[in-house]
Amino acid sequence: MIDYIIVGAGLAGCVIAERIANTLDKKVLIIEKRNHIAGNCFDEKDENNILIHKYGPHLFHTNNKEVIDYLSKFTNWDIYNHEVLCFIDGQKVSIPFNFNTISDIFPESKAKLLEKKLLEKYEFNSKIPILELKKSEDEDLSFLAEYIYEKVFVNYTAKQWNMKPEDMDGAVTARVPVFVGSDNRYFNDKYQMLPKYGYTKMINNMLSHKNIKIMLNSDFKEVCSIKEKDFYLFGKKFDGQVIYTGQIDELFDYKFGELPYRSVDMKFETIEKEYYQEKATINYPNNYDFTRITEFKHIHPVNSEKTTILKEYPQEYKIGQNTPYYPIFTEENQENYNKYLEYSKEFKNLVLVGRLAEYKYYDMDDIVKRALDVFGDKIK
Ligand code: UDP
Q1: What is the ipTM of this complex?
Q2: pLDDT of 234-292, one tens digit each?
Q3: What are the respective helix, strand and coil percentages of the chain, to the nearest 5?
Q4: Strands 43-45 and 326-327, how do they pair?
Q5: Beta strands at 77-79 and 191-195: parallel, antiparallel or unpaired
Q6: Average pLDDT, whole number, for the chain?
Q7: Which of 84, 130, 155, 157 is the best mutation target for the ligand 1 pocket, counting ligand atoms within 8 Å of the beta carbon and taking the most?
């Protein structure tokens, strides 16, 4: 007897599966398309004995103690503060753009002036989205904003999204704000750490329960069908809840059209030396077709004569050909998503959660929080 079906073994689906199994003592079937659990958080040791993030760098950071307390039941942690350099005019400088970046790029007197102007207008340690700084009327701040916009954002965003920063939801570029202070870390959150043995191991621990069954390599529609507004499992009407974490447009056979996503071609390379670059990630806004290079040894240190790097080449998402990574934020896309959302409400047993099902740019901590909330509010 199955009480709940969960579609997708990513973080969202696995948190809900764990909660159902452990606190409701009910039976869960997870249906997963891929041949592994953990969704895009999936990590594994490669042939160089280096723990790599198969779907791009995943750096856990949060201010939410509830999320930390919850995940700590399934993993120990290693403290890890992510730092990123940005390649600008032949120089590698820290981003988010901060006082150190300013000193590295501009002559001393100019740097001092820019810092002074920033501190006159903004609080020390505040984070200013580039699109907000760009509205500055002060001549020097306006110069700084234009510089950062041109050198850091405009070309990276063109590669990553095929759009201009101002044509997208400002929240996307605000993820990497200008930082009014000297902190070089990519994130400022209180908790910055990584599961000691990786995300896959942590998620595997979440799923280790007799009430949880997982079907890998299984497309939802091979196992379940929808007739009228009901779900059928192997041809038999299923009266429990279906927690769906996949693409909402796919679930409903694209009846309101395809929702666009961005994809990324992840190209891993082995380099025959101990280290390849200075920091875990280096962004290349203005050079090459890839956006950034990540070297995983900086994230999970290990003794090895070789090193593994990842170059990320953003691409248009094409159904059946590549992976949908990022929903694309425009008003039009949101309106189309809302049509799906409204339609989904006619399915009384259906619960939607996650980056793909909710068409939202959730971070990992947001997903865990969201899944815990959905479990509390919607799982009956
Ligand atoms: N961004 C940019 N230049 C950079 C870093 C980020 O233009 O050097 C913009 C870009 O639009 C990107 C967004 O900020 O998609 C968010 O960056 P983040 O590093 O958070 O992206 P993620 O790691 O989620 O892909």
Answers
A1: 0.99
A2: 999 999 999 999 999 999 999 999 999 999 999 999 999 999 999 999 999 999 999 99
A3: 35, 25, 40
A4: unpaired
A5: antiparallel
A6: 97
A7: 157
pTM to 2 decimal places: 0.97
Cβ–Cβ < 8 Å for 37, 204: yes
> Cα(49) to centroid of ligand 1, in Å?
29
> In ligand 1, which atom is closest to the CA atom of 153?
7
Q: Which of 34, 2, 4 lies closest to 16 in space, CA to CA?
A: 4
The architecture that CATH gives domain 4-79+194-260+327-378 is: 3-Layer(aba) Sandwich (3.40)
Q: Residue 231: is its pLDDT beyond 90? A: yes
Contacts (Cβ under 8 Å, ≥6 apart) of 219: 31, 33
User: Domain residues of the chain, as ranges?
Assistant: 4-79+194-260+327-378, 95-181
pLDDT of 329 above 90: no
pLDDT level of residue 89 (50, 70, 90 thresholds): very high
